Amino acid sequence: MKINIKATGIELTPAISSYVEKKISAIEKFIDKATNATALVEVGKSTHHHKSGDVFRAEVHIVGNGLDVYAASETGDLYAAIDMVKDEAVHNMLQLKGKRETLARKGASVMKNMIKGFSENTAKGFSWGMERLKFKNFKKRQ
Predict the structure, then answer these.
(1) N or C terminus of the chain with fewer C-beta within 10 Å?
(2) What is the C-alpha separation between 28 and 92, in angstroms, rounded?
(3) Which phi and psi angles does 124 have, rounded to 5°?
C-alpha cells in the first residue's frame, strides 16, 4: 500500500512522517493484496481561529480497486489525532467487510431456497419456492 502524506499548517517533520507511516501501515492487514490501495493522509492544524488552543486534524482516505474508506479526527494532540483516525479507518474497513459478507450470504440463501423449492415442487407445477422469496402480490397456482 502506498502512503502519501500531506501537512497543512505545520511542518512535516521526519518524526511525524514515520509515526504516520507506522500507524497507517497497520491498516494494510485489513486490505486484500490484490487491491492496489493508496492511502492519502493529511495532518495539520484545522483552523487558526474559532477554537482556543491548537486543534490538530488527521484525515485518511484509502482508495483502491472497489475500496473507498475515509476517516477523520480532531483533537488537541497531533499524535492522538493520528491514533484516532487509524482506529476509525479500521472500524470503517471492518464495517464495509461485514456489509459485503452479509449481502453475499443473503444472496446465497435466497438462491439456495429457490433451488430447494424448485426440486421439492417440480411435480406441483412451477412455483419453485417463490413463496420463500416473499414477493408481494404473488399467488401460487392451484
Answers:
(1) C
(2) 13
(3) -85, -10
pTM strictly above 0.70 = no
pLDDT tens, residue by residue, 31-64: 877 778 889 999 998 776 655 677 899 999 999 8
Here the cell at position 46 is 484545522
Q: Are residues 88 and 111 in the same domain?
A: no
Helices 78-120 and 14-25 sit at what angle, rounded to 10 degrees? 20
Q: Which residue has the higher pLDDT, 108 or 129?
A: 108
* CB within 8 Å of 83: residues ≥ 6 apart: 23
SS3 content of the chain, % helix, strand, coil (to 5): 45, 25, 30
**CA Rg, the chain, in Å?**
24
Average pLDDT value for residue range 9-36: 87
